[in-house]
Amino acid sequence: MDLAGLAATLRAEATRANERRLVVLAGDRDTGLAAAHTVVDAADVADAAFVTTRSDAGDDCLHPDHAGRLLGTTREAVVLDAHEAFSPNALGRVVGAVDGGGLLLLLTPPLDDWPARRGNFDATLAVPPFDVDDVTGRFRARLVETLRTHPGVAVVDVDGETVERDGTTDPPPATTDRRVDLPPDRTFPDAAYEACLTTDQAEAVAALERLREPGRAVVVEADRGRGKSSAAGIAAACLAADGRDVLVTAPQFRNASEVFARARETLAALDTVAGDGADDRRLQTDAGGRIRFEEPPTAADLPDDPDVVLVDEAAALPVRLLARFLDAPAAGFCTTVHGYEGAGRGFSVRFRDRLVESDVDVAEVRMDEPIRYAPGDPVEVWAFRALLLDARPAVDQVVADATPETTTYRAVSGAELVEDEELLREVFGLLVLAHYRTEPDDLARLLDAPNVELRVLEHDGWVVSVALLAREGGLSAERRAEMYTGARVRGNMLPDVLTSQLRDPVAAAPVGYRVLRIATHHAVRSTGLGSRLLDRVHDGVADRVDWLGVGFGATQRLLRFWRRNDYRTIHLSTTRNATSGEYSALLLRPTSDAGWALHDRHARWFRNRVADVLLDALDDADPDVVRAALAGTAGRVDVALTAHEWRVVVGAAYGPGLYDTSPGAFRRLALAHLLDGDVELAPRQERLLVRKPLQAAPWDVVAGELDYVSTRQCMRALGEAFQPLVDRYGDEYARAERGRYTD
Fold first, then answer.
1. 541, 595 in Cβ contact below 8 A?
2. Where are the chain's structural domains?
3. Which among 269, 257, 253, 262 has a CA at the least distance from the CA of 235?
4. DSSP-derived pairing of the beta strands 452-459 and 408-412
5. 412: left (phi over 0), alpha (psi -120 to 50) or beta
6. Which of 497-515 are b and which e, b meaning 16 or more Cβ less than 10 Å from the residue's Cβ?
7. Given strand 75-81, what is the order of strands in its sheet?
8. Is the CATH number 1.25.40.10 carried by domain 3-166?
9. Are 344 and 313 in contact (CB under 8 A)?
């Protein structure tokens, strides 16, 4: 085996075509690492990064857990050690870091043995009560098949010193004349466009010029490696150079680091930098403009009233958070179409409704031409297939006529998915489309995790709705005791919260299924398919488990959907999710006596504590979320007001009394109404009950939020809102007191 010769050949071919090549070094780990150094040296690579748990593997080593640091960077070669801490996420992170002409090296066990081996990632899939022997190797078996059949992939048996595949494709030379056509009607300085490397990038910058005017939004979609973040950085610099305040956000700052790097370069070219100090998240211009970064939940509040908001990797944020950026004078949304960071197709489908509903003038641009490597790069095509980065559901036309009555329900196993590539792509495509954080790891979880099960509805053989279920609970007394004293147990989210946070020592004894994901094809949304699927899931598992449950970032729409499907609120988290900015809700649908006992005590505890929590940790929760959460809680509270308290409440409702003399009485009455909903109040009246009696917001804040012209009008409105509640809950004494004002 002439490994050095193969490395030199692949490097030369990749350089000539401006493509990348993948080299699989299969066999013993130490032998593979030595072979990797041989490849790096023979390929004349100057900046190879080693992603491995071995700190002595090379000069530039990263633990696989930190592979995300390579996002937005480039190397001539990246070596990924798959022997100990391999994960699909790590693979997804490193693929894009290899530049055109470079090599991706994958160190693996012998390929025939790899699917049967178990590593650290498999241990994360072995959630209790399962162990690692219950985890299958379907993801790796499928991965091995792609490595052995895809163009541009060399496979070397380092133990037998043989080359199974040389990975050469004999491509034509790359086009050296990369012409950039500049937009004729551009208004940004020419220096900005001279920094663009492709016509696509120049057109994206031109589209972002629109953000100079209020009431505009721009959506930029691109596959990874097309330079969308650079385009955003160039545009941000031009806007700031013109005196505008540009607020940049992304899931994490590292996602936006390229935006700031290109903005800094562009500002230097424009000779407009006044200084940025030591803060790499803030740039200032001598025209008074600035570019600053904030985390998404903070940025969504539009701090200091920015002129423009730029959202990078927008597909990795929930739509309900993205919609808040439309309140900015102008907003740009940049997103990866296919890649580790997100799925632009899902972003465009899910976000399009919000754009249409808004009154902003929207422009869209797509970037297709790669910058770092040639179009059709075989490593990119392989990664799309191996990680299903381009998976999508069935086309709209074949499912447009689907109704609950035309569908068939079935359970689909991981074995079926791996044998039917089209079915797998439809299922995973729906999951990606519906959820903002579906990652490559989720593909392995779908195929291999012993606690995960899949249910689907099909119309004429096409998948129209999917539900991903995770078995939770059924844990031993010893494990439950460990949880109660603070030990974390993987893959048992609902029992873990109920045990460790809510102090229920037996919450993990009943067995349940948590709905991890539910997704319906966008062409047939709001037709009852999701509810039909949940009903069929319930009917299919009710005799085998004690409960069905779900946890999610709480919104009014989602809470109403789950309530309609007989799931009831038992908990609202007291901290916001760092990405979505929402408080999380936990809901249960019992299916057995043990499940009902679990539900009833947690519903009771929730009713007993929620008033106190709304005054404290949840005092800023959206009142519509609070309304929906309470309406979806089973049970009632005892109003039990004293005679004096009834005099105060009735006096405020029907006479000259004041709320402020006894807020607790109003609080209990408001809570009783929002829990049982026997009285019909207008939505604004219920929001008023939440913001004042339950959350104790100041009168002027409540009046402003709910559009009352004055605090006096807001006070009168609160009294009027309590009139029907006095009529519904008042005892004989309350009715007599009311008669003082009405008779």
1. no
2. 3-166, 190-367, 396-625, 643-742
3. 262
4. antiparallel
5. beta
6. bbbbebebebbbbbbbbbb
7. 61-62, 48-51, 75-81, 98-108, 21-26, 153-157, 162-166
8. no
9. no
Amino acid at 119: G
Going by C-beta distance under 8 Å and a sequence separation of 6 or more, which residues neighbour residue 477? none
Q: How many CB atoms lie within 10 A of CB 616?
A: 10
| Element of type H or E holding 309 | strand 308-312
Residue carrying structure tokens 């179409």: 337
Question: Are 339 and 386 a contacting pair, CB within 8 Å?
Answer: no
Distance CA 573, CA 576 (A): 7
Q: Which two tokens stand for residue 23?
A: 């080299």
Instruction: Tell me how far apart the alpha carbons of residues 351 and 375 are, in angstroms, rounded to a whole number.
Output: 28
Q: What CATH number is given for 190-367 in this structure?
A: 3.40.50.300
Q: Does residue 122 contact residue 444 with C-beta atoms inside 8 Å?
A: no
Provide the pLDDT confidence category of residue 345 given band limits of 50, 70 and 90: low
The answer on pLDDT for 175 being more than 80 is no
CA-closest candidate to residue 104, choices 375, 336, 383: 383
Peptide bond between residue 663 and the one before it cis (omega within 30 degrees of 0):
no
User: For residue 26, with 0-12 CB atoms within 10 Å meaning exposed, 13-18 middle and 19 or more buried, which class applies?
Assistant: buried
Q: What element of type H or E holds 481?
A: helix 477-484
The tokens describing 93, both together, are 């992170």
pLDDT at 348 over 70: no
Q: Show the CA angle centred on residue 229, arms to residues 73 and 66, nearest 5°.
A: 35
pLDDT digits (tens, 9 = 90+) for 632-666: 999 988 898 999 999 999 999 999 999 999 999 99
- Of 7-11, 98-102, 194-198, 290-294, the poorest mean pLDDT is in 194-198
Q: What is the pLDDT of residues 733-742, one digit of tens each?
A: 999 999 998 8
∠415-421-423 over CA atoms, to 5°? 80
3-166 and 396-625 agree in CATH topology = no
Cα–Cα nearest to 89, from 61, 114, 68, 75 = 68
What architecture is the 396-625 domain classified under in CATH? Answer: 3-Layer(aba) Sandwich (3.40)
Q: What are phi and psi of 380, to 5 degrees?
A: -65, -45
> CA 465 to CA 593: how far, in whole Å?
30
